[in-house]
Amino acid sequence: MTLTADKKTTNLVKKYFKMNSMLTIPCEFNGFGECTVRFVSVSESDKWDYKEQKYARVINFEITLKKSGQRYSQDRIPSEYSWRETRQSFYKNRKWAAQNQLERMLRDTKVPLFFKMATIPTKNHGELVGKVTYKYID
User: Fold this and answer.
1) 71 three-state secondary structure
2) HSE-up of 61 (CA within 13 Å, CB side)?
3) Are the beta carbons of 131 and 60 closer than 8 angstroms?
4) For the chain, how far is it from start to end, CA to CA, in angstroms?
5) What is the rounded distance in angstroms from the CA atom of residue 39 to the CA atom of residue 23?
6) What is d(CA 78, CA 91) in angstroms, rounded to the nearest whole number?
7) 44 bridge partner residues
8) Which residues contact 102 (CB under 8 A, 6 or more apart)?
9) pTM for the whole thing?
10) pLDDT tens profile 33-80
11) Measured over all CA atoms, what is the biggest interatomic distance in the chain, rounded to whole angstroms?
């Protein structure tokens, strides 16, 4: 999926998140433990929304989590020649788990309603999560 920056929508969504104090959200995700989710930006994806006749928008997030102690922490990344799990499957599982947790978290807020009210097109079935970056701290 190709993403390009959308400054106008980013500013609009950032104001909404700031009003509702959702720029940084402390969470507890399965496999991630206690972590902090931070709103980064809104990007335009390469998925076309036929209803709105525009390209869909997605939200980019940054997850800050601990280096050790959980399923997707930094010390659990498999070595290059691991027998039990490959790095590629680890990263794929981590990405899938993060997107599911973020989608669930966003569905419980009023963010999807805000996107509808502001006529910001989304991907199929209201998917809002775009690129997720990970940052490890002690």
Assistant:
1) coil
2) 28
3) yes
4) 32
5) 5
6) 10
7) 4, 57
8) 37, 61, 128, 129, 132
9) 0.86
10) 999 999 999 999 888 888 888 899 999 999 999 999 899 999 999 988
11) 50
